[in-house]
Amino acid sequence: MSLAVTSRNASELLKDSQFLEEEQKRIEQRELSRAVIVSNVPKITVDKYEKLCTVLRKVFQQVGNIGSDALWVPQDENKDTKGFALITYDTPEEALKAVLQLNEYPLDKNHTLQVKTLLDIERIVHTSETFEPPSLPIEIPTDPSSRPNLFSWLLDERGRDQFMIRHEETEIYWFDSLGIPPQLEYSRMNWTEADGYWSPRGTYFVTFHIQGIAIWGGPKWERLMRFPHSHVKKFDFSPCENYLVTWNDLDPERDNPKDPECIIIWEVATGRKLRGFLGPKHDEKVAWPMFKFQYKDEMVARLVENAISVYTLPEMTLLDKRSMKIPYIRDFQWSPADSIIAYWQPEVGNNPAKVTLVEMPSRKELRQKAVYSVADIELYWQQNGKYLCCKASRLTKSKKSRLANFEFFRIRQKEIPVEVLEYKEKEVVYDFAWEPDGDRFAIAYGDNASRASVAFYSMEDTQVKYLFSLTQRPVNRIFWAPQNGFVVLAGLGSLNGQLEFYNVNEQESMNQSEHFMCTNAEWDASGRFVATWVPYSRNKMECGYIIWTFYGKEVYQATISMFSQFLWRPRPEWLLSKEQQKKIKKNLKSYRERYEREDQELKEMRRSGKAAERKKLRDAWKQYLQSIGEDDKPFQWMSGKKETTEEIVEITEELLEFKEEIIDK
């Protein structure tokens, strides 16, 4: 049985019969989800039995592994088959693929296979013959005294951040800046059947299950709400965490047009289904997220054929009862700080490609820019919504190669001026990244990623201003810190985890290091620490994570079997005004002294605690020797004296003022 373990309430959980019952039920459902029932199998005699099994195994091994004893075709007393088969896969995901891809599979002219999971069959068998109206979802309690404090983690006295890792278990840790090993906050086996995720502001933790998704939070990590949507593959939260959208890849031909189940928009607080939509066909390319939310959660938009459909929230009614007709539209993005949609259209005939900005809900066109000889366009909003970058892949005159072209829109200036930045034909652009809370951006480019260049620019003046470049760097990804102008230049994937920690303000390389074969990097919310990690799928022997300081010093490293995921917990936006933030920065020295004193006290406490633990172990050893009639004299040769003490010396460096005087004789 899989149990949840927490440092605070493990004993309580073990005594909670409801919790144990739910855990057992969840495990049973997972086992049932691994098996599929195949009906309409040919009824044959015993002499053709082995051939039938071979054919079925060949068909169903297309989607997942089938063990030697995982295929069962029942026979009657005459050894004739009964017309169905039971197949067990290694994981529920493989069984789901079998249902989605092999249901209605034409085995021959007379037999079309029907495939369902054993869990679905169990539900049908145990369905009551009398109709019972569904119970309403349980709403998160509105009474403050009974509602869990969803922001309790922000009240940590030391202001620590949390992170989540996933391996054979899913674990949440506290991270301390003093070099103390991460402290386990909560751990649970089989908490999620796919990757876990935080909501945008860190309020909720999201888990995947065969039946749908669930959100968790509060000081005891309670399950706050369930969203029943069978076999969910992807989800997305709205920026303010009021709504979420889920998608399960149900083919529209099998969906119910009157009550679609492929894509569902949910209200988070109540678990209420606001509206369902049909999804794309299986042979269509899926661009996720399919629904994109406005920054205040007042609207949500969807790209449809030659149009954008915008819906009001929470009513989910089409804005002005009509979609915005935009011929050949390819993609759109909401501004992260304004009710503005940016979209682009490709070249059609003699008409150039276009990038357009539209204000919502008025649908007023704010700006349009034509771009010529374009193959593709990517839209990058700056975090504060001040700028929009359009990276255009332009075709050369010969149409045989491409070059990068950047169009920068100054959203807050009158008439939204646009500036252009071009790169040469042979210079491949590997990455583009805005400074999250600033006016700068960086571009990694070159003819070879192992010796790429990184150029830094500023939008602070009236024109794009070139700042400086770094050359001959193994870089294909750029990671800006949330604040203070620090950046990690990373060579991921084929570049095997080369890392450079750079101070853009001082134009100074602080350190260069390597995390071999790492695939990703992520800054914590404070911008003081950055984590890199290697999943099990990339390196089975050395999978795990490393946490670094902003200047590139390794703080903590963990190698974990079956490690697959690392995520810092996001923080909500500051509630302090700009004036209050300035006041704090002005008095930062007084705060700093207080916190440094607290840090020193904590260090001393840890040292004394370690010394006490060592003394406790020595006393226990002596007591054991006395109990067996021995003493510790034979072991004193290791230290050379009867009793040893360990003195912990703290080395501090003090910079003394030095003056040089020249005295005339």
TrEMBL record:
Q: Any idea which UniProt keywords this protein has?
A: Coiled coil, Cytoplasm, Initiation factor, Protein biosynthesis, RNA-binding
Q: Where does the UniProt annotation place the signal sequence? A: none
Matching PROSITE patterns = RRM
Q: Where in the cell is it found?
A: Cytoplasm
Q: Name one GO molecular function term.
A: RNA binding
Q: Which GO terms describe its biological process?
A: formation of cytoplasmic translation initiation complex
The record's annotation in InterPro entries points to: EIF3B, eIF3B_RRM, Nucleotide-bd_a/b_plait_sf, RBD_domain_sf, RRM_dom, TIF_beta_prop-like, WD40/YVTN_repeat-like_dom_sf
Q: Which residues form a coiled coil?
A: 578-615
The yes or no answer to whether the keyword Coiled coil is present is: yes
RRM domain location is 34-120
Return the SUPFAM superfamilies for the record: DPP6 N-terminal domain-like (SSF82171), RNA-binding domain, RBD (SSF54928)
**Residue stretches spanning the membrane:** none
Gene Ontology cellular component?
A: eukaryotic 43S preinitiation complex; eukaryotic 48S preinitiation complex; eukaryotic translation initiation factor 3 complex
Q: What does this protein do?
A: Component of the eukaryotic translation initiation factor 3 (eIF-3) complex, which is involved in protein synthesis and, together with other initiation factors, stimulates binding of mRNA and methionyl-tRNAi to the 40S ribosome. RNA-binding component of the eukaryotic translation initiation factor 3 (eIF-3) complex, which is involved in protein synthesis of a specialized repertoire of mRNAs and, together with other initiation factors, stimulates binding of mRNA and methionyl-tRNAi to the 40S ribosome. The eIF-3 complex specifically targets and initiates translation of a subset of mRNAs involved in cell proliferation.
Q: Which family does it belong to?
A: Belongs to the eIF-3 subunit B family.
Give the PANTHER family listed for this entry.
EUKARYOTIC TRANSLATION INITIATION FACTOR 3 EIF3 -RELATED, EUKARYOTIC TRANSLATION INITIATION FACTOR 3 SUBUNIT B
Fill in the subunit field for this protein. Answer: Component of the eukaryotic translation initiation factor 3 (eIF-3) complex.
Q: Report the protein name in the record.
A: Eukaryotic translation initiation factor 3 subunit B
